[in-house]
Amino acid sequence: MSYGVSAALQQAVYQQLSNDASITALVGSAVYDTIPSGTLPDTYVSLGPEVVRDRSDKTGSGANHIFEVSVVTTIAGFATAKSVGAAISDALHRADMALSRGTLVGLVFVRADAKRIGSGDTRRIDLKFRARVDDS
């Protein structure tokens, strides 16, 4: 198994989301790898947890990365969050991204969970994606 491609995959996902015209039209530069301190915008995107499983074989090292990208908004209703979620899905599903280490074999959407946070108007959608990477 190799976890060595993890940082390269995260960087590529961050760049893909940050440079996507549809996403920036909806959230501007509010795509975060680390949530900044201070006041947050009404709607933002955040890279989240990741689970990695070995997918090595006799031809080389590889792994499946299940990672999460979240949309958080304080705008009432789910329409804004769903629009941003759709743009994220469009930007990442089957994306062809170059990695600084290893090779992205495939990237697909797995599922999304939409929910309210607390009793307020905050909405959150957690989108999960599966990336197959080779580290050969």
SSE diagram, text form:
Layout: H1 6-18, H2 21-27, E1 31-32, E2 43-54, E3 62-73, H3 79-92, E4 103-116, E5 123-134
Parallel strand pairs: 1-2
Antiparallel strand pairs: 2-3, 3-5, 4-5
Structure description:
The protein is α+β, with helices and mostly antiparallel strands and 136 residues long. The protein has one domain: 2-Layer Sandwich (STM4215-like). It is built from three helices and five strands. It has helices at residues 6-18, 21-27, 79-92; strands at residues 31-32, 43-54, 62-73, 103-116, 123-134. It has a five-stranded mixed beta sheet. The mean pLDDT is 94.
What is the average per-residue confidence, as pLDDT, rounded to a whole number?
94
Q: Give the low-confidence spans.
A: none
Topology, number of strands: 5
Name of the top-level CATH class: Alpha Beta
Shape: elongated
Structural key phrases:
136 residues, alpha+beta, STM4215-like, five-stranded mixed sheet, 38% strand, elongated
What does this entry show, briefly?
The protein has 136 residues and is of the alpha+beta class.
